[in-house]
Fold:
Amino acid sequence: MPMVQVTMLAGRTVEQKRKLAQRITDALVEEAGAKREAIVVAINEVSRESYATGGVLMADK
Amino acid sequence: MPMVQVTMLAGRTVEQKRKLAQRITDALVEEAGAKREAIVVAINEVSRESYATGGVLMADK
Amino acid sequence: MPMVQVTMLAGRTVEQKRKLAQRITDALVEEAGAKREAIVVAINEVSRESYATGGVLMADK
Amino acid sequence: MPMVQVTMLAGRTVEQKRKLAQRITDALVEEAGAKREAIVVAINEVSRESYATGGVLMADK
Amino acid sequence: MPMVQVTMLAGRTVEQKRKLAQRITDALVEEAGAKREAIVVAINEVSRESYATGGVLMADK
Amino acid sequence: MPMVQVTMLAGRTVEQKRKLAQRITDALVEEAGAKREAIVVAINEVSRESYATGGVLMADK
Structure:
């Protein structure tokens, strides 16, 4: 029963999230032998003011 | 100082969250010997468009 | 399909983890209306060298 | 710079993890427009004594 | 490529988050030898109704 | 009561972790007004076989 948490900037469409969840789930089923119905994918969206790379907020780039 | 993170669909009432936090904390104190005042519980709510099981968004079920 | 992640110091017995998982799951079923078979609980154990409160490693207390 | 955390039972081979990381990364690039080199995937393996579904440890099933 | 997730009550200003991300990143570069451009910091803000310590929601204190 | 989770490759010394925990805690106290004794830092170490950037395991680089 794998759990997948994706943390990314907010702003993806529902269609993008739908495809992401499908493909990540497919990968777990086909590559790791997980049972499809037992896989959970949560997408955790963060704002540009709450996400930094290299020490700099995305809002400042 | 255990940290507990609960990821679930948005939509629970404050009273439901209150009870959840109480009971999870009680379980850690009584079963694992944790100090009550040191336990943190965070409830991370996700939307139906950001949560999938079996590769299908909750919004599509 | 709630996901629960518990981060705590290593060292609990299997029996303690068994009880913790049961009671956390019961709380989600009874207080938040979650379906029992859909609840996942993962216990993430960390060593005393990898866990700090108040800025001080547990290994140094 | 998306971060992906996969929590699953220990026991996958390196080849399985390699494929998982590739395919999850591909999905983020192709479906969500993420930059490949900015994607991080961490696989967090838990033991059967630290993972429960339906309130029952995997070790007890 | 270290990933840092900070879970805290909502309400910090952008300037506070900017400083936090800078200093956490500096610490990883200077103390752990991480490459600056590879460090991701995500700040996950939770409401007072979704955060409890000692089993009591912040909203009830 | 902020919770900080750092996910990074295994292999840091205790002294490195000690400094990291201190400085991350200091940053939260000084920049975000958090109470020192309420801050938890957990360092989650992953192996080179369980960590990928750009879709490639660290073990393969």
Remarks:
- Chains B and D do not touch (no CB pair under 8 Å).
- Chain B has a mean pLDDT of 96.
- The domain at 3-60 of chain B is CATH 3.30.429.10 (Macrophage Migration Inhibitory Factor).
